[in-house]
Each structure stands twice: as structure tokens, then as C-alpha cells.
Amino acid sequence: MGMGIEVRNRMASRAAKEIKAGMVVNLGIGIPSLVPNFLAPETEVLFHAENGVLGMGPSPSNGEEDAMLCNAGGFPVTVIPGASYFDSATAFAMIRGGYLDMTILGGLEVSEKGDLANWVIPGKRIPGIGGGMELAEKAKKVIVLMSHVNKHGEPKILQECTLPLTARGCVDLIITDMAVIEVSEKGLLLKEVMEPFTEKDVREMTGAKLLVREGGKK
Amino acid sequence: MGMGIEVRNRMASRAAKEIKAGMVVNLGIGIPSLVPNFLAPETEVLFHAENGVLGMGPSPSNGEEDAMLCNAGGFPVTVIPGASYFDSATAFAMIRGGYLDMTILGGLEVSEKGDLANWVIPGKRIPGIGGGMELAEKAKKVIVLMSHVNKHGEPKILQECTLPLTARGCVDLIITDMAVIEVSEKGLLLKEVMEPFTEKDVREMTGAKLLVREGGKK
Amino acid sequence: MEAKMEMQSKVTTLENALSFINDGCVLMFGGFGGVGNPPTLIKGILQKGTKSLTLIGNDAGFPEIGIGKIVSAERVSKLITTHIGSNPIAGKLMVEGKMEVEFCPQGILAERIRAGGAGLGGVLSDIGIGSMIEVGKQKVEMGGKTYLIEPALYADVAIVHAKKADYFGNLIYDKSARNTNPLVATAGKITIVEAEEIVAPGMLDPESIITPGIYVDMIVESEGVDWKWAWE
Amino acid sequence: MEAKMEMQSKVTTLENALSFINDGCVLMFGGFGGVGNPPTLIKGILQKGTKSLTLIGNDAGFPEIGIGKIVSAERVSKLITTHIGSNPIAGKLMVEGKMEVEFCPQGILAERIRAGGAGLGGVLSDIGIGSMIEVGKQKVEMGGKTYLIEPALYADVAIVHAKKADYFGNLIYDKSARNTNPLVATAGKITIVEAEEIVAPGMLDPESIITPGIYVDMIVESEGVDWKWAWE
């Protein structure tokens, strides 16, 4: 969505803080794929890929890529000791079976109830659903990393999504270039405002009511 | 059912003649387990077990048994080169998926329509169904090896089974101590009479009409 | 980078593992005819005195072998299985009304367990239409055929036998002792593995791991198998 | 005894294998984003000119990589898949009405293929309730929950990529190129494997065989993979 690499990195870095040791995490394509770069080296995390890998490690060096080893986005990866390979049915059995602690996905729209729309790009051909529905519906925690507004400058966080939904009420946390927003039972909770924006900027660019937790950052 | 080992071996030997090279075959417990002893050594057959083995070989010598390698009846086996191990879901996926060319089962009753009853022993506790239903319903060819009469001297081949069915219309061939009988579209076809019995003996001990194919053995 | 690759060990004591197996729980077990039942965990359950179990697994073992010991000791209030023919005590308890038994075709039980672990509601089966198997089950028509809806099975605790585990819980099995173990391993809220050998992550070939460690919560070292004489 | 252990070889020529892949057939393919699509078989299908295919598999590949080449060449009348985002030509053909596309959630497609191979009628899924995924599908209520009935998928021919095959058809795969291949291998009336290496039975560890040879009808030697530059 035209965000610079610094902004994208800041979002990824913020998302990385949500990852706790021992978690099993699936990363979507795009900004989510930058998240591992910001994990503390001692953080023991298992990265899962829909095509059938558990225990992905850092990206390989140039020339060290293996044509037979990639993530679900088709990018070359490595594996850590303790990794395993399996078929795609098993990869999704893990997802639907509730074995994924977290997924970090991109988003087109998120509603104040945590509905997510991230698969039909308006005005474009329908690309299909891929594995997004299963991840969004079944991962224990769903974090959406997206630009706060669309390319027309319109809010992507709305009272109701206008695009076809990927899944209802699935989103737990939204991290944008402007803010960190939690989807709580009471509604959207503004947890952090990113520089150089102000709370007022965020409210203006958000299409839903934002609560502020007492004692929380404004 | 009190048949001597010679008779049991004769039945197993006759069943062995039905096995063609390249077949994938599952053997039930009891007399069917004797069948491999009567295969010509060059016959290339793959024996399948419900617990998850494809490519079982001869029984191990005394003292050579492996506590981790048995057939579905719990008897120690060996494997041939090209064998594979898998879980029980896969073992039955093969059966239901139509990948088994033949199963050779025991029987309590067979009807003239090929219905098989082989799981509820009258007057005994219900032992459960095990894997019999899936084998009987899904193997391409079902051969039943059983005594011609029950312990009360009553026919086990009947117009209609009286015991709960394992599967309907599944049996292709019945091999007993008295005869070999094919289940054809027209009815039961008496193909062979075992010594010392006569066709008359067989007819008397059979509770259904027996046809004789022209040019066939009486 | 090395530190990042260290995974937290799931190896624990038998006593700790048993603390998760309590009266009235739904206990799923791996194994087929005694072979592949986890003997050390079963011995522990017997010694602990756990009772009123709902047991789910392939069969009732033999009276004095494998899971059969738990059945024989009258610790089971309900058994969901495929046959009890090898354990006459199970039949006796069923007839006396001391143990409820629900039978399922063998491959369908395996699929129901797999469906539980795979987050599916169940599978459509054409096995046992018109037999006692269909009692109490919904049917659907599809493409001119009738299918039974065979619902997924879940457990509070799944107990599993493996040949080798790394301490993250990646598992390999041993020949036909694999049988239902990889399926059962996926379907427990808590999955406890009894392994003959425990190694460090990286010691098992990632291509040959049958059960990825994600499914495993605890690993106990086996005191060795006891089922050899099942066929002796 | 040695003679008994010889299994008939399923290794054949590309030409013979292609003779089973004909206009209008339902063709299922292994692979995920190009990786694991069998390149030699795909090249053969293109050269043969086979058309009006119903294609079933994870995705539409890339315009010039893997299965995408068959889509780009307009050989496909219907595609059952999970996404076509990586192949804009697929989207164009869909919009122009030249290719019908049916979308399925990724893991559910995998399960539907598995169900086809496993002789199940389908699976019960709670994925995509209320979305376009449920269009035309039956629903059932069970235990207070609603499930979609996701029907099994079958193919006339399944094409598969493997790292190694023994000539009976036992297969092992290579890292993430495994993906949907073991599932697809089970669901074809005829299953054709393209293998990087072909060995004698007994050369593969029976514990590590992912696809037992029972599922495989023909084996063709691969001319090598061509998908490396998918990410370059």
C-alpha cells in the first residue's frame, strides 16, 4: 500500500513483540514475512507453513537456496533442528485442530467486531481464498498487519466491512502504520499511536469508534 | 469348526489358486492365514494388514520374531523388499479406496445372494466388527473360507442369512471342506466337490439351490 | 543463533504425566491388539487407581496385555472401539452392564480419531449402512448415494507409544507398532507420549518424522514393551 | 524365495504415460505454487496438445511455471483450486468465461482429495460458513454446530512429483516439494509419478516411505525440475 520500508519494518517489529517463546506461528505473505527479522535471537518460536513445514529458520544466503524448500509464499527458507516436513492436509489439520498459537496476516478491512476481509481486492479479479480462511478462523490469536488507510486515503478499520469477509470476529490485534488497536469485547481499544501521528489523526482515519484503556498510552 | 489340519490345508491350498501375480491381498485370521504356505514361490503377491503393513513375507523362524512386527491378528510376520509401514487410517483408506484386489475371510453364514455374516457368533457375546465390514464391502474379490456346516451339522450356506450381516452381496467365492461354490448373478454355482464327498452330499448340506455350470465339474 | 534453535524440553516424569489423567476423563490410546499400547503409562494409570474412564481406541487388548489391563481392572465406564474379541473380560463387563461399549468399523474409528485431530466435524462413510453401525447416526444423500455421518472423536488425554521422540515431541514409530498411534497423537487436548528412546531435536530426519512435535505435550521414557508374549 | 520378492516394474516411457491423459479427462496434480508440480509430465501434456481438461489442485501456478503453463495454454475448461492469484492469465480466462473456476479453502481441498483416495464420501467442515464457499453445498447440524459437507474429489489421472520411487511405486518426497503430492497420489484412477530417481524395491526405508506403491500405476523418470526461478 505504498508504505516505505522503514514503516513496514516498524510494523513488523511491533508485531514481533507479540510473539512469546514456545509459540507456533504462521506468517502471511507481505509485511508479516518481515516479522522474524525482529525477534530476539533467543526467542524459541516455531514457524509453520501451509505447504508442509514446521520449524522454518532464517532466509538462506544468496546462492544457498534450495529449490525444494520454500514457504507458502514460494520464498526460499531454511529449517532449524527439530523441523519436520508433512503434506498440506496435515499442515491444515494443525491449523484447524487449534495447534497454531498465532497467525499474522495482511488485511484489506477489519471491522470493530474483528471481522476480517483480506481476499477480494475491490475492482480486481477474485484471486481465490487460499489458506486464509482456515488461518483466520482457527489460529488462537490473529494479528492483522496493514496500512491504516487504503490507496484512496479511506479508512480500512470500519464499523462493518464492505468487502467479502475472510472470517467473522477473528481479529485480536491490528497493527498499522498509525496505531496498534486491540479488538476487545467492548470494541476497538487504541493501545498505541505511532509517530508522527497523533491520537486525533488516528481517530480521523478510523471508521469506527476507538476506546482508550485507562492508564494506557494515548 | 473342528476340521483337521489336512482339511484346513486343502482349503487354504485351493484358495491360493485364486491368487494371481501382482495382486494385493488381505487375509483374515484362521484358515485364511494358511494360504501363503500354498503359493508358488515365484508368485508376486503383496500381502496387506489392517494394522499398517504392505508387503508381508513368510512367518519368522522361531526366535526370530520381532515384537514390533505382526499382522492384524497379532501373529509375527516378516516383510519383503518394497514393503512399507503406515498408520491404520491409511491401511483402511487403501481398503475403502478400492486398492485391494482380494480378501480371504472366514464366515459363519453366506447367502445365495452373497451376503456374508461373520461377526456375531450365535449365543456368544458380540465381539465387535473390527475391520471385516470394510474388507467385505470394498475388496474387489471376496473369498470366504469356512466349514460347510456348523457345529450342529446345519448348513452355513443359506437362502438368507439368519445372523446379523457383515455386508450384503459381497461374496464372490465360497471354499469349504466339501465344495467350491461361486456366487454368480444367477445364483450359487457348484464348481468343485471335495473328496470324499459327492455332489449329493454337498446338496444335502447346503441350504440353498446349487446350479452346475455346463462342462463344469460335478 | 544457536540459542534460538534450542527447544524447550517436553520430557517429564511418569508421575507428572499421570497427574493429567484423572477419574472420568476421556482417554484415547494408541495400539492395535496390544502392540503399540504404551505399557509404562498403562501401568502407571493402574497403579494410580484412575477410574470411570471413557476409553477410545482400536480394541480392548488382551485380559493381561496392554490396554486390556485397564479394562480388566474395571476402570472403564465406556469404551468406544472396533472389537473386544481378544478380551473376554470386556465382553463379560459389557453383558453385566458394568461397561458401555460402542462399536465402530475399524477404519472408520481411525478416521473419526483423525478427524478430531484435524479439526473436522467428521467424515461421510458408506460402511455399515443398514447394520447396527448406523444406529443413532445422521445420514445424507449425495450424488445418489447414502452416507453415514461419522462424527469426529476427541479426548481429554491421548496416550501414545513411539520408538523415538526428540524432546520437542517429534516422533517416529517402530514397524507395525505404529498402527493407530500417529492418529491418536493428534486428537488429545493433552497428548502424552511414551518413547523407547529420547533424543535431541535435529537427531530425527525431518523427512521421516511421522508425528510433528506440535501435537505432543509431554514425553515419558518407556520402561520397555511388555506385549511380546501376546503371540507366544 | 528371491523370485517371490521381485515386483513387477511400473517404470514406463513418457509417451506411454501420456497415452492415459486425454482430452476432457479429470486431471489432478500435486504441487503448491509451482513447487512439486511434475515438470516433465506437464511438458509432455503441453506437447501432446491435450485439452478440455478438468484440473484439480492447489493453485494455478505461475504463467510460465509448473501447472500454470497448461492453464496459460488454454487447455483447461474447469479448474477446482484454492487460489489463482499467482497466475494472472488464469484470472483473465475466468473473467472471459473461457475457464470455469471453483474455489475451495486450501486445507479443505487437501481433505477432499484425501477423502477421494480414502474411499470416504467427504468431510464435515466449519470453514467458510456464510461465505461463497458454502454455495451449492449441503449443511448438517451436529452437536449444536453447523457443518458444510465437503464432497470427496476424484480424478481420472493423478500426476505426482517425487524425489525417489522404487519401481513398485513406493515414494519419498523432497522437503516442501512434498506438499499436496502424497494426497493427489491416492485419488487418481490412474496415478502417474514423475520421479527424480528410480531405485529397486528394498532401497527405500519402509518406515520412511510416504506413499506406498499400491497407489501408483506408472513411473516416469524426471528430466529435472524447472521451478527454481519461481522466487528468483
Low-confidence segments of chain A, ≥5 residues, pLDDT <50? Answer: none
What string, H for helix and E for strand, traces the elements of chain C in order?
HEHEHEHEHEEEEEHEE
- Main sheet: strands, sense, barrel of chain A: 10 strands, mixed
Q: Termini of chain A, distance in Å?
A: 26 Å
Radius of gyration of chain A: 17 Å
In terms of quaternary structure, the protein is heterotetramer
**Which chains have the largest interface?**
A-D, 41 and 53 residues
Fourth-tier CATH superfamily name of chain C:
Glutaconate Coenzyme A-transferase
Average pLDDT value of chain C?
94
Q: Mind summarizing the main beta sheet of chain C?
A: 8 strands, mixed
Question: Ends of chain C: how far apart?
Answer: 52 Å
What name does the CATH topology of chain A carry?
Glutaconate Coenzyme A-transferase
Radius of gyration of chain C: 18 Å
Q: Give the number of domains of chain C.
A: 1
- CATH class identity of chain A: Alpha Beta
Mean pLDDT of chain A: 92
**CATH class of chain C, please?**
Alpha Beta
Residue stretches of chain C low in confidence (pLDDT < 50, at least 5 long) are: 1-5
Question: Would you report the number of β strands of chain C?
Answer: 11
Number of beta strands of chain A:
13
Within the largest sheet of chain A, what's the order of strands?
4-3-2-1-5-8-10-11-12-13
